[in-house]
Design a protein that fits this description.
With about 425 residues, the chain is of the alpha+beta class. Helix content is about 35%, strand content about 20%. The protein has three domains: about 170 residues, ATP-grasp fold, A domain (Dna Ligase, domain 1), CATH 3.30.1490.20; about 140 residues, D-amino Acid Aminotransferase, Chain A, domain 1 (2-Layer Sandwich); about 110 residues, no CATH class. Helix 3 packs antiparallel against helix 4 and helix 5 crosses helix 6. The chain is globular.
Length: about 425
Amino acid sequence: MSNLFDPGSTGSVIPAIGGKALNLLQLNALCKIPEWFAVPAKCFADLLQASGVGTRIETLLKELSPENSATRADQIMALIAAVTLPADLIEELSAMLNSKAWGNDYLSVRSSAADEDGKEHSFAGIHESYLYVKGVEQLGLHLRKVWASGYDSRALHYRRQNHLPLHPVPMAVVVQRMIPAKTSGVIFTADPATQNPLKMVISSLYGLGEGLVSAGLDADHYTFDKHSGEIATVVAEKSRQILVDRTLGCGVLEYEVEQGLRNLASLAPEQVVQAADAALKIERCFGCPQDIEFCFDDSGQLYILQSRDITTAGEYGPAAGNHQIWDNSNIIESYSGVTSPMTFSFIRNAYAVVYRCFSEVMGISRKKIEEHEEVYQNMLGLFQGQVYYNLPNWYRLVKQFPGYNYNKSFMESMMGVKDKTDTGDTIGDSSALRR
């Protein structure tokens, strides 16, 4: 049985490959990303058990205290770095590189813990990633380094703060083909300074994105308005960039930017729009604001490297890219005056109860109803004292029943919807409030 996970030849069962790898699986269908494969968390767990290192780690963690946490972390990381990889894993890594014709290509080796890059927790900047790695020997070395970073003192502190288990760390690893980036950057689909979900902020510079996310080099900033499409540009003087270490032929090093390029925008206007369009598509897929890493190669091809939820953003609704349409064509007859928030809370709950019961009568299973609880709880909205139907959720409700096309038309007729909109899972203009 294969130890490795190849998204190009997946079966029905996906092993524990971590948050970052699962995000990449979704990104595969949305945009161009570098080819990749994953080393599932089971490989690390099996290694800890077979080598006896797992037991030694448990002993060290039992003695963990705020005073000795740095020392214990160093001891644990040294144990993992020194462990010998199983021969079958090395053979599979070598075979994977050969099958993808990556023998002479540079690779990135990135952490992908099971509880990483999710809606509740983010280990961004804590677990390690390594760039411009070449060959199976170097891959094995950096694989151990990524596993070890799960026990870094910062990682242990974060786990303890968030009541996550300290051991074993469910660490999978993503191996991606390196893209020789001409320019790289980060996109926040909600403004990180103001948390405004209507403003997208794109930061970019020359060379690799590590210059931005790790080295703190100066970068250009583009603010993209999601409604108008307007772009506000601030160009920085970009004197330094991160590239492959030209002396060693692996790893990265900081170099000077050519004098004539330093004060030019690192992205052309059409590249800003292209990156923003891709980011909007990703945000709508994941359903909440995203922190996205990207790059353009010498030919101008855009690659999305990874995407993670912005866990600090409060807006998960229409402004974050989850389009809604509200309609009160008929319901205004029942609530023609000003509806108070207290009255609305009663109405909203009544609709939820009635349609849950109706679904049960129609043969919808209790489990399916529970899975769609958000739909039942959000069938109505209140705007300036008037009650509206939340049309996307009504369509989603009707879609649970057999004969969707017939039932959809009946629902639209009953509700008095003038502009027919078959939402599926998405909907049109988020600014539309129709009577």
